[in-house]
Design a protein that fits this description.
The protein is mainly β. The protein is built from no helices and 24 strands. The chain has a single domain, classed as Neuraminidase (6 Propeller), CATH 2.120.10.
Length: 299
């Protein structure tokens, strides 16, 4: 694989997550969960815009109305990009012990939200995940939320195959990636199968992205790498990084062959000052990723 770069070089996230490439603006969104910050990077200028959040924020998705949705600890909120104000849009998981975690849009532009037992304390400290409370919700443009899965420990990765008929997700704590038959009209998930599990690669599966060849690129939390799974569940490529906790990735650039990779410093109190953990890494790859749809509407 090609070598990596760090962009921008001075940026370090406490818990970088959920990168999203917006093809319409050619900009990358992501967030620092513990840092309570939404970020947008313009590769053409090197400029980063930042929106401070009132609570822990696990994800951001631009919407067709020109603003964005942010996943705060207790639900989904609209973000006014001009004022920075947040207003509640929907709160699908009403369990007060839980927080938002993973987020992506499906090919139809609906929002998919994963929740989990809140493992972040009031001071940003790690808290044990004490229950399999996580759920996966599909949220329609009008805010109606349908529970798709439940009983998950740590929800991560929402990806669809190029034909839109298979859905991939994982439980990071259980070290398993599942694949389902996907009915977009329901939407509905059927025929759950294990796609990859256990010691297939160092670390635990975290966030991921799908390429045009139907291969799943998966962050390996604790494993200092990303791996690419073929549709048969075999690893055919790896990208090793100087960061212990890669968290997620997104394909960007005009040709969607630039892979942006987030990482985290969380839980590593003994890192040296020059450690690259928490950086946003970028590399070029030889296959394009699938486009990432905006949320169909937040109005």
């Amino acid at each position: 694989m090609a070598g990596y770069e760090i962009v921008p070089r001075s940026e370090r996230d406490q818990l970088g997550e959920t990168p999203f490439w917006d093809g319409a603006t050619q900009k990358l969104w992501w967030c620092d969960i513990v840092g309570k910050t939404v970020k947008r990077f313009d590769p053409s200028s090197g400029r980063i815009e930042r929106w401070p959040m009132p609570k822990y924020v696990s994800g951001v998705i631009p919407s067709e109305d020109g603003h964005a949705l942010v996943m705060l600890v207790d639900g989904v909120y609209r973000l006014d990009l001009e004022s920075g104000a947040t207003t509640e849009f929907t709160r699908p998981d009403t369990d007060p012990r839980n927080r938002s975690n993973e987020v992506r849009t499906d090919p139809q532009g609906r929002l998919w939200l994963g929740t989990m037992f809140n493992n972040i304390g009031p001071g940003g400290e790690d808290v044990p995940v004490a229950a399999d409370n996580g759920s996966v919700f599909c949220i329609a443009p009008d805010g109606f939320a349908k529970r798709m899965l439940s009983g998950i420990n740590i929800t991560n990765t929402f990806c669809w195959s190029p034909d839109g008929l298979s859905f991939y997700t994982n439980d990071t704590k259980r070290r398993v990636i599942w694949v389902f038959d996907y009915d977009p009209d329901g939407p509905a998930l059927h025929n759950q199968q294990v796609f990859a599990e256990g010691d297939v690669a160092p670390g635990n599966p975290d966030g991921g992205a799908m390429d045009e060849e139907g291969c799943l690129w998966s962050a390996r939390w604790g494993g200092s790498r990303f791996v690419r799974f073929t549709p048969a569940g075999k690893i055919d490529r790896e990208i090793e990084l100087p960061a212990k906790q890669p968290s997620s990735c997104a394909f960007g650039g005009a040709d969607r062959k630039t892979l942006y990779m987030t990482s985290a410093r969380q839980g590593q109190d003994d890192l040296p000052p020059d450690a690259l953990d928490g950086s946003l890494f970028v590399t070029r790859v030889d296959v394009a990723g699938l486009p990432m749809p905006r949320f169909a509407s937040a109005g």
